């Protein structure tokens, strides 16, 4: 499939998902990045940020999300991941502000639950299992 359409971003995103499911997060990271390089596919941005967080590359995830959120400013998943990246880099206050922004614009139960988890503190790494 890649030989037929080497610049089609969904091919690379799907390969990233495959390798992520095989728990080869380094390979997944590379394929997600290739997908992003080939096109602005929102899911590749989400998946790339998630795989960075799963690898505990919290600062890299935060920098990536801060740089790229402008392309998808209403993407709830990316904003949630941004909040978690702040939390995992020790900036709980900013994490709370980011989630509060989410709740103000999208008062879902998931967003409220995320705020509660961040406010309580503790180990949230199990969110990525």
Outline the structure in words.
With 129 residues, the protein is mostly helical. It has 7 helices and no strands. The chain has helices at residues 9-21, 25-38, 42-54, 58-68, 76-88, 92-105, 109-120. Helix 2 packs antiparallel against helix 3 and helix 5 runs antiparallel to helix 6. It is globular, with a radius of gyration of 15 Å.
What is the topological layout?
Blueprint: H1 9-21, H2 25-38, H3 42-54, H4 58-68, H5 76-88, H6 92-105, H7 109-120
Helix pairs in contact: 1-2, 1-3, 2-3, 3-4, 3-5, 4-5, 5-6, 6-7
From the structure above, extract its key features.
globular; 0% strand; 129 residues; Serine Threonine Protein Phosphatase 5, Tetratricopeptide repeat; 2 domains; TPR-like_helical_dom_sf; mainly alpha; TPR_rpt; single chain
Helicity, as a percent range: 55-70%
Nearest-integer average pLDDT = 92
Radius of gyration of CA atoms, rounded to a whole number:
15 Å
Secondary-structure element sequence? HHHHHHH
């Amino acid at each position: 499939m890649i030989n037929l359409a080497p610049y089609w971003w969904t091919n690379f995103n799907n390969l990233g998902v495959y390798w992520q499911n095989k728990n080869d997060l380094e390979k997944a990271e590379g394929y997600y990045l290739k997908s992003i390089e080939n096109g602005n596919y929102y899911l590749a941005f989400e998946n790339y940020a998630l795989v960075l967080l799963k690898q505990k590359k919290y600062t890299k995830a935060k920098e990536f999300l801060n740089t790229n959120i402008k392309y998808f400013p209403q993407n709830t998943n990316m904003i949630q991941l941004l909040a978690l990246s702040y939390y995992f880099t020790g900036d709980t206050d900013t994490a709370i502000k980011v989630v509060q922004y989410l709740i103000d614009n999208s008062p879902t139960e998931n967003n409220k639950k995320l705020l509660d988890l961040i406010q309580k503190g503790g180990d949230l790494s199990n969110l990525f299992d």
